[in-house]
């Protein structure tokens, strides 16, 4: 069928409108990722766990030598959050691939994404109730919110392939990340003011901030829900039975078929390692700043504000560089910078505000760029019609569902009673990830997946 002369092609305008709506889910969930997951909840839950273990609110975790009892095992309060993220990842490994397979077969992807988002945001708002020594409630809500965040992102990321052409994806993905940093930064700034005004009631201010992040996540999810249309599935792998049986069948088929896409598999392995390092740095930064470098909550929050707003420029600059030199080369350069960031963090002395803020600037420059480009780069390496399922594998190591790094960080801290060697140990993840990434043949991987090769690879 050919387009009649004189009839304008409205496809680009329609895509642009949906892309603008799609960006807003980055804005929505980044409030939770920043305010709750990255900044406030980890040290807050650590303090709650310390009270439960030691009977007082310790300002120095090393003075608390008693352990929590979890399933008959002694767990250091300072390591609890990292073990929880590890547990959430194990659950994600079982759940998210099935979510992805189901999403690929669904004609209501946008609706699925919003449903998962609202379930996660409900858990995030309920964190307001965590107080005293009730670390069990906090632990349960963190795991639930992390699982639903991961499920929503599986579907959200897969929608990128439907609303953007191959040459548009770096730009679209990076703009989404930049808007996410802006939204997360704005709410974090509001919470910074709240913590300052309620300096004598820090715990109440933290709990209100946790609630605000969940509410923000829920409200702004309405924009992509209303602005991105549902589409019928395409090129679905034939499977027998109902949706659940079909989803498990498709998952098994995908795991078998990964052998036919060796470049895609190599990138997934690379991403598993280097993104574990990135996510663990994000999760550990607030605890590291408070417990190791002995900064107050307000200073740590200020540093994260720096990360957020520098991250906007970082994401957009990395997209420009990728357009000229290729996405693969730009990600490689970003990982080299990450190695320097880890070394700088290890060397930063306690209460050195200048170096701590320099560390925040360095993280902001590289954080958004590597994450945004990794998402768009991976979208080029997956076969059409199976985007959500492949992105479920991707999400198993994305935005807080990493497990190697958090487990390593928690174990090294428990063995050494210090966060410095735990941070330095993360260099192994970046080095291994960089090694696998250098083995990725971009043009071959895109061709094997049956996709059109962009002009610059």
UniProtKB/TrEMBL annotation:
<feature type="transmembrane region" description="Helical">
    <location>
        <begin position="422"/>
        <end position="440"/>
    </location>
</feature>
<feature type="transmembrane region" description="Helical">
    <location>
        <begin position="331"/>
        <end position="349"/>
    </location>
</feature>
<feature type="transmembrane region" description="Helical">
    <location>
        <begin position="135"/>
        <end position="156"/>
    </location>
</feature>
<feature type="transmembrane region" description="Helical">
    <location>
        <begin position="177"/>
        <end position="198"/>
    </location>
</feature>
<keyword id="KW-0472">Membrane</keyword>
<feature type="transmembrane region" description="Helical">
    <location>
        <begin position="258"/>
        <end position="274"/>
    </location>
</feature>
<dbReference type="Pfam" id="PF11700">
    <property type="entry name" value="ATG22"/>
</dbReference>
<dbReference type="InterPro" id="IPR024671">
    <property type="entry name" value="Atg22-like"/>
</dbReference>
<dbReference type="InterPro" id="IPR036259">
    <property type="entry name" value="MFS_trans_sf"/>
</dbReference>
<keyword id="KW-1133">Transmembrane helix</keyword>
<feature type="transmembrane region" description="Helical">
    <location>
        <begin position="300"/>
        <end position="319"/>
    </location>
</feature>
<dbReference type="InterPro" id="IPR050495">
    <property type="entry name" value="ATG22/LtaA_families"/>
</dbReference>
<feature type="transmembrane region" description="Helical">
    <location>
        <begin position="80"/>
        <end position="103"/>
    </location>
</feature>
<dbReference type="GO" id="GO:0012505">
    <property type="term" value="C:endomembrane system"/>
</dbReference>
<feature type="transmembrane region" description="Helical">
    <location>
        <begin position="355"/>
        <end position="378"/>
    </location>
</feature>
<keyword id="KW-0812">Transmembrane</keyword>
<feature type="transmembrane region" description="Helical">
    <location>
        <begin position="399"/>
        <end position="416"/>
    </location>
</feature>
<feature type="transmembrane region" description="Helical">
    <location>
        <begin position="204"/>
        <end position="226"/>
    </location>
</feature>
<feature type="transmembrane region" description="Helical">
    <location>
        <begin position="110"/>
        <end position="129"/>
    </location>
</feature>
<protein>
    <submittedName>
        <fullName>UMF1 family MFS transporter</fullName>
    </submittedName>
</protein>
<keyword id="KW-0813">Transport</keyword>
